[in-house]
Amino acid sequence: xxxxxxIVLDFGGQYNQLIARRVRECNVYCEVHPYYISLEEIKQMxxxxxxxxxxxxxxxxxxxxxxxxxxxxxGIPILGICYGSQLMAHLLGGSVKTAPVSExxxxxxTIRTESRLFTGVSADTVCWMSHTDYIETPxxxxxxxxxxxxxxxxxxxxxxxxxxxxxxxxxxxxxxEGQKMLSNFVFHICxxxxxxxxxxxxxxxxxxxxxxxxxxxxxxxxxGGVDSSVAAVILSKAVGKQLTCVxxxxxxxxxxxxxxxxxxxxxxGPYDLNFIRVNAxxxxxxxxxxxxxxxxxxxxxxxxxxxxxxxxxxxxxxxDFLVQGTIYPDVIESGLGKSATIKSHHNVGGLPDxxxxxxxxxxxxxxxxxxxxxxGRELGIPEYLVSRQPFPxxxxxxxxxxxxxxxxxxxxxxxxxxxxxxxxxxGLDKEISQYFAALTNMRSVGVMGDERTYDYAVALRAVTTxxxxxxxxxxxxxxxxxxxxxxxxxEVKGVNRVVYDLSSKPPGTIEFE
Length: 513
Ligand code: XMP
Fold this sequence. Notes:
Shape: globular
Domain GMPS ATP-PPase: 196-388
Distance between the termini: 46 Å
CATH class of the largest domain: Alpha Beta
Oligomer: single chain
Bound molecules: xanthosine-5'-monophosphate
CATH architecture of the largest domain: 3-Layer(aba) Sandwich
Number of domains: 3
Structural class: alpha/beta
Strand content: 25-35%
Radius of gyration: 26 Å
Number of strands: 18
Pathway: Purine metabolism; GMP biosynthesis; GMP from XMP (L-Gln route): step 1/1
Function: Catalyzes the synthesis of GMP from XMP.
Keywords: ATP-binding, Glutamine amidotransferase, GMP biosynthesis, Ligase, Nucleotide-binding, Purine biosynthesis
EC number: 6.3.5.2
């Protein structure tokens, strides 16, 4: 890759990929490397700048992650963040100690606005701190450029050597002017021009995949979700017909979803790939007959998916590579450095690790969800696929409380389609993180056209969340809810009640099972 790039050296901090992502937001390519890569490797990459991440260790302890002092002599601008700042201070002769007062959270920092790092930043600015050690005195030749009442060196620099350091984390949102600081580093200190765009990411990914895959056969389990769709299109661009996408329709998809996926990836779609749609609805319904326990349902769906996928893989034969749409948050969840471990239950894409693949290809493993969507747009994937809300691997199976039957699937599909349509009509679809209809296992008495009914209650769910680990119930205008209720009871046979789920997570979860 000949384009300008900034590299992040990972010293074990929590936010290392976030730093890379913030730099990419400046249109500068950025990637994360372990702290122990050699100076030779760094020189070969020819970065315009280096950022040291935070980390949980103490820079002055012998066993802590460190780097060669010569890195500071390369003439490449360096920004040390938190542990990275302490390491810089320690290696260059400053003093790092346990702080008498640790700082955690939003902290007002007084900075010297003459610093290039702080151009355009307010003199008193709110920053995110999280440290128990601190720099007591900076190394010789360094100037203190920021402090708090209890932290004498909240920022320091040696401008002639292009070495900068902040005790706080400019990459997190709570550092109000953090993005400005990173942008100052990247443009005014490293001299980047910002010519990188997501399409360069795609081009590079395509090139790398071609090199890796050669003339091998590649298999992709396509769910129709954003991640696997984007991964499949990148692969298709890279290796064309060497790629086969297997799309298992387990009969638990949203209304028309199977056909929508086929329209894009099937023979009439724009991509030159082999596409296999397996209509396995009956097979799944049969396995789910009489099963009501949520975990058991999930297990059955996951396992059956694997069986179907495996059968297809065998039919294709001699597949060398398996594509996974793993994105960065998945990497965090499964533990860094476990790239070859196939997730077994997070998604229906939790594939068998015993099918004989030479290697896994994960073109999206460095990206965050919204970056994946951006890449999808660059690739010309239709907006309705790119902006899809998350959909669980077990699909409607976990949105039908109790036993799953073909009839119940139809009810929930129809109710859900109406709900989604009305949310979009009300212009709320971009504001709500996830929303769907579920079928409760409750039937109750109602009256319709003077007749007694004894039908199901549909539950509407809508949440706002950023991380899906916690969530709040979305405040949907009552008129919208009422319209959905009217349409559902009138248009969906078998439903005579609609309820709105007010629970947050915790104590509820987003899905019902
Ligand atoms: P919960 O219900 O745990 O869901 O609050 C959190 C988020 O995860 C999604 N989800 C899944 N996604 N496979 C997936 O790929 C699954 O088995 C699964 N279960 C839940 C859910 O839709 C929500 O976005």
